[in-house]
């Protein structure tokens, strides 16, 4: 897709789309109401967008004002965002899972003037802290607000979104010119959004991203993945409050003309996939791991002939994938076997995803190599991408025709990515899209980048900004990696790196992914900084554990955060010992404790993007860690 001045800002995308790609009667979005999927055209969307923009202008909102959203995915998010974008407002999205204190902090740090709130549960959170936010002048509720009016003595005004849109519609004739003037006054370097990233330590930081950051990131990503078409349907379920889903679904659809369908919930995702039959989905590694685990269980649990056919099909799929990846002709016999495997096994698994998937884009964390290969064996293309909120986000993404499992793809056009020595700060190599060579490999170090994706900085935090973006314009990602076969490969986070008592660097992510190959294990949290050997908290796969030992839900609700049961430990230890053979001796788990429940956001143990907060976990479970190093260990 060629760049054009007509698509230089976020609000220009939808207008370019209805002018050059689709008529305004074409379906833009769909969502499920009760049991019916409702289609929304561009014309319907633009009418609501303009009505909300008018209402903003009528209450004095101006260019540069921050306007917050605390809500789930859906058409209302798009209406509100587009409405504020076209008058120069700054989208300040807040994760729905954040605590009241965190919401209060973000509203005050950003100086948000209004907030759109989704369901009643989220509304109650905002009501509790609204009077502590002096800049907040309006709360907008997606549901009816009549029942709240008498109880509430809020300083901020309160209005329902439906009433707001009706009021805005009446004012459109008087404000039409004002909207046009405001939209034309927006330039690519203007701030488009604030996305707060809590990271694994410290208070939230507001990442300032411009219109140019976001639009250019979409443009170059589509150059890298040219198979997205205007006839495609995306199924959206990851939060739009995160930059990955906002860019890779919402903005990609605005740029390409693809349709967005909103899943009802994660719990109903499988059902929605069957109903929508999407062509493209963005996902996180954990979802793909669950699909893999379920497919393996369904394919092998019955035993006998069915299990043998399933495992035979996977072997055929692997041989076929490898032959095609190496640009060899697979041959008549392998082609015939593959056609049979597709009919007997693969087509049935694909049908559960709707049967029309061209690609799935995985981001937000490292995808274990074996999981990527499994989907490749099935003939489902999973492309990995890499980036940060601070880079808008995409820095690299897998090319459709060239997949190196365990890597995150080729550098996208227009940016530089370098590998820097952690200790000496020597830059080993600088790579670009144009310098790509299939055979290139580099030393390992911190990944740094500069170019069009780099944020404007952290709001109100000049020292943190200077610590992240150096004097030469390099943004330090905090991720460790290297180039492998021309592609970028992520090793781990710099802050996660463990250094044992003998000075050996241990990167937890690849070690944890090795143990996650076990169907008995859902999560691994590696420990061992400054210690003689590695230990871990192991989170067992709940379904497998229940099935093996006949456990009830009450077992998982017991107060002790750890499971102290020798039979269960031996059951897990059998797989841990076996998988340890794939690792260097200093990387192997020698002792472990079994965590009764996964780490949770509610307990402050993980970030909204599911990354563990290492310092908090280590402090919270300090006694348990001490016990791990008092024992002799069992897994070595």
TrEMBL record:
Domain of life: Bacteria
Domain AMP-dependent synthetase/ligase: start-end pairs: 30-459
Protein keywords: ATP-binding, Nucleotide-binding
Protein's name according to its UniProt entry: AMP-dependent synthetase/ligase
Pfam families associated with the record: AMP-binding, AMP-binding_C_3
Keyword Metal-binding (UniProt): no
Keyword rRNA-binding belongs to the record: no
InterPro entries from the UniProt entry: AMP-binding_CS (IPR020845), AMP-dep_synth/lig_dom (IPR000873), ANL_N_sf (IPR042099)
């Amino acid at each position: 897709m060629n760049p054009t001045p007509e698509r230089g800002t976020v609000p220009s995308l939808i207008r370019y789309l209805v002018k050059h790609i689709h008529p305004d009667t074409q379906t833009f979005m769909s969502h499920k109401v009760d049991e019916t999927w409702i289609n929304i055209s561009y014309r319907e969307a633009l009418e609501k967008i303009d009505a909300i923009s008018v209402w903003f202008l009528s209450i004095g909102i101006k260019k540069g004002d921050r306007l917050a959203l605390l809500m789930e995915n859906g058409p209302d998010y798009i209406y509100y965002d587009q409405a504020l974008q076209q008058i120069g407002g700054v989208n300040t999205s807040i994760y729905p899972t954040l605590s009241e204190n965190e919401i209060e902090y973000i509203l005050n740090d950003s100086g948000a003037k209004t907030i759109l709130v989704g369901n009643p549960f989220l509304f109650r959170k905002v009501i509790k802290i609204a009077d502590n936010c002096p800049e907040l002048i309006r709360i907008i509720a997606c549901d009816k607000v009549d029942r709240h009016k008498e109880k509430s003595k809020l300083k901020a005004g309160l209005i329902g979104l439906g009433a707001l849109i009706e009021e805005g519609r009446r004012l459109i004739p008087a404000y039409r010119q004002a909207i046009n003037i405001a939209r034309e006054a927006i330039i690519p370097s203007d701030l488009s959004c604030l996305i707060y990233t809590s990271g694994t330590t410290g208070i939230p930081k507001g990442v300032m991203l411009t219109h140019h950051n976001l639009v250019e990131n979409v443009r170059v990503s589509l150059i890298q993945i040219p198979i997205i078409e205007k006839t495609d349907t995306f199924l959206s379920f990851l939060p739009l409050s995160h930059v990955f889903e906002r860019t890779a679904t919402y903005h990609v659809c605005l740029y390409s003309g693809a349709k967005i369908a909103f899943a009802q919930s994660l719990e109903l995702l499988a059902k929605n996939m069957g109903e929508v039959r999407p062509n493209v989905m963005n996902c996180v590694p954990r979802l793909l791991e669950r699909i893999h685990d379920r497919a393996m269980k369904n394919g092998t649990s019955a035993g006998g002939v069915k299990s043998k056919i399933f495992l035979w099909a996977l072997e055929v799929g692997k041989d076929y994938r490898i032959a095609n990846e190496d640009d060899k002709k697979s041959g008549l016999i392998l082609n015939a076997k593959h056609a049979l495997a597709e009919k007997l096994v693969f087509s049935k698994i694909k049908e559960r995803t709707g049967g029309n998937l061209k690609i799935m884009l995985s981001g937000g964390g490292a995808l274990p190599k074996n999981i990527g290969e499994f989907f490749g064996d099935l003939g489902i293309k999973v492309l990995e991408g890499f980036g940060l909120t601070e880079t808008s986000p995409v820095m690299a993404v897998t090319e459709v025709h060239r997949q190196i499992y365990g890597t995150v793809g080729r550098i996208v056009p227009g940016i530089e990515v370098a590998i820097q020595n952690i200790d000496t700060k020597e830059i080993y190599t600088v790579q670009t899209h144009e310098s790509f060579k299939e055979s290139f490999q580099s030393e390992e170090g911190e990944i740094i980048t500069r170019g069009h994706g780099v944020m404007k900085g952290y709001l109100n935090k000049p020292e943190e900004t200077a610590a992240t973006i150096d004097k030469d314009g390099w943004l330090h990602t905090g991720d460790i990696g290297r180039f492998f076969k021309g592609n970028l490969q992520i090793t781990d986070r710099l802050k996660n790196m463990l250094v044992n008592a003998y000075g050996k660097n241990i990167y937890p992510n690849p070690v944890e992914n090795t143990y996650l190959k076990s169907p008995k294990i859902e999560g691994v949290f590696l420990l061992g900084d400054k210690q003689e050997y590695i230990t871990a908290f192991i989170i067992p796969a709940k379904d497998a554990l229940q099935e093996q030992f006949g456990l009830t839900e009450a077992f998982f609700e017991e107060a002790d955060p750890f499971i102290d049961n020798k039979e269960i430990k031996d059951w897990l230890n059998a797989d841990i010992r076996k998988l340890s053979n794939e690792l260097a001796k200093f990387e192997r788990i020698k002792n472990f404790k079994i965590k009764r429940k996964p780490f949770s956001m509610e307990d402050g143990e993980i970030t909204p993007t599911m990354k563990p907060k290492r310092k908090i976990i280590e402090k919270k479970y300090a006694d348990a860690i001490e016990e791990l190093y008092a024992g002799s260990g069992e897994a070595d």
